[in-house]
């Protein structure tokens, strides 16, 4: 089952262009870390099927990143991110530009990454766009 964020949820993205706020998003990564769960979403219009070969990421897109801290009693945060594909198509780059964090490089086939140093460490991510 595909996970999709509704347009109403995206209206909270004051820093994104109006067209991005009107578009449905598709989850392309689900990750579980030591202290939190993370998900990465990109606009549904750039996803034409499963896997990296069926996603148009020839230029960065504005997507969404969730940091679920429910277990820590802090709720779930949703923020805009820039998502792009590395030149060799082996990594998806998630840029949390609103928090000025270093970009996270997630292997397309999945792997363990660190989104930041407080939460989201040792996050085990599933393969890109496999739902």
Low-pLDDT segments, ≥5 res: 6-20
Could you say which overall geometry the principal axes of the C-alpha atoms support?
globular
The total of helices stands at 2
Strand content: 35-45%
Q: What is the straight-line distance between the termini?
A: 6 Å
Which structural class fits the helix and strand makeup? mainly beta
**How many domains is the backbone divided into?**
1
Give helix and strand order, one letter per element, not per position.
Answer: EHHEEEEEEEE
Share of helix among residues? under 10%
Write down the Rg.
14 Å
Written account of the structure:
- By secondary structure, the chain is mainly β.
- The protein has one domain (4-125).
- It is 6% helix and 38% strand.
- It is built from two helices and nine strands.
- Strands 1, 2, 3, 4, 5, 6, 7, 8 and 9 form a nine-stranded antiparallel β-sheet that branches.
- It is globular.
- The protein starts with a strand and ends in a 6-residue tail after the last strand.
- The model is unreliable at 6-20 (pLDDT under 50).
Task: Compose a concise summary of this entry.
The protein is mainly beta and 131 residues long.
């Amino acid at each position: 089952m595909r996970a999709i964020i509704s347009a109403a949820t995206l209206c909270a993205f004051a820093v994104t262009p109006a067209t991005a706020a009107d578009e449905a998003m598709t989850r392309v990564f689900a990750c579980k870390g030591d202290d939190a769960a993370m998900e990465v979403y990109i606009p549904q219009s750039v996803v034409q099927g499963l896997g990296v070969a069926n996603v148009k990421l020839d230029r960065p897109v504005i997507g969404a990143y969730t940091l679920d801290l429910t277990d820590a009693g802090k709720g779930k945060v949703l923020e805009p991110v820039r998502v792009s594909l590395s030149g060799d198509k082996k990594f998806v780059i998630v840029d949390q530009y609103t928090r000025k964090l270093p970009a996270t490089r997630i292997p397309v086939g999945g792997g363990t990454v660190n989104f930041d140093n407080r939460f989201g460490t040792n996050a085990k991510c599933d393969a890109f766009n496999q739902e």
